[in-house]
User: Fold Putative galactosyl transferase from Ceratopteris richardii.
Amino acid sequence: MEARATEAFPRLQGTKLVTSSIDELVLPSQLAATSEERDAPKGESSFPRSDKEENASHGDAEAAAGSSLLLKPWLLPRISNWDEQRQIWREKHPCEGNCNNYKSSILLVSSSRPSPCDNSHGDHIMLKFMKNKMDYGRLHGIKVFYNMAHLEIDMVDYWSKLPLLRTLMISHPEVEWLWWMDSDAIFTDMTFEVPIAKYSDYNLVLHGWEQLVYERKSWIGINTGIFLLRNCQWSLDLLESWSVMGASKEAREEGGRLVARALSDRPLFDVDDQSALVYKLVTNGEPWKSKIYMEGSYCLHGYWDSIVDKYEEMMQNSRPGYGDERWPFVTHFVGCKPCAKQGHYNETRCIQQMNRAFNFADNQVLQQYGYKHLELGSVMLEKTNR
Assistant:
């Protein structure tokens, strides 16, 4: 990674796949922040806040019932003029990012643990799923960033994506959208493209249903395993506000109690990023609600257990390009935990179906070269008529 002396932003150069090291990534302090802020301990900052930020924080504070643990800003240094900084940078670099092609303004981001998997099959599955994301990015001209570093040691598991996304956002002013995708999710329609123009008035796009979130207050009304986040001040504010429940073990425990009381179907355990976002929306929806699009017209998050046994039927009766239940865009193996010793579902079924999902998608790549898998459960290939 090259850091130019004349620019405030570290750049990703060369290949489209970049695996980070923590020394390369943690460079947001190069942004225009005061020295007092850079030296401030976590949870304290002398950076001035806008009225909008203050109101949002007060609303979150009321929802948290005065919890001191859930009032601390975590992702620092705080930035309040990002849209202006980004616009200045883009005017100086008019053809970086999305000059000719909107897809070049999307950065696909995924991540896995920095240490070997506990499950003996896990690293091989992670490699296959990473290859799948690389293939999709190559086919569609989308850059891929794969992370294997913890940027905030206290923000573990599903929370680790938030500091990563913030770091990438401020390091890549040329990128308009960051597309987060869990490591256990795989593209299974390699031709479908996200209708990005549809979201011109929104800053966050995720799979979900407004009725489940706002009327039933269900913590599974959305899925935060795959989402698109616009590179803007609104998103920086959201990440800061969203992160407070995941900032420490104590905050996650207290957050778990809060969401269990506020949401209709959330069991009592440490808060996760998904239930924290639902909690935020149902207790203090503005200024967030109006800029969030809950997508249900295609499988941005396709629940694996209702999909994987239908692959052969899809191959016989349909074709890629729909992205919906006829040929799902994404198959997400929620609960399988391929890198852990034990998940929520039968390990044998999970591993078997993950391999089938990979081959289902891989056939769409191999067909360009005149090959396909003998069957979805096999690594063996056969030639096809091109």
User: Anything to note?
Assistant: The chain has a mean pLDDT of 82. Residues 299-386 form one domain. DSSP finds twelve helices and eleven strands in the chain. The radius of gyration is 21 Å.
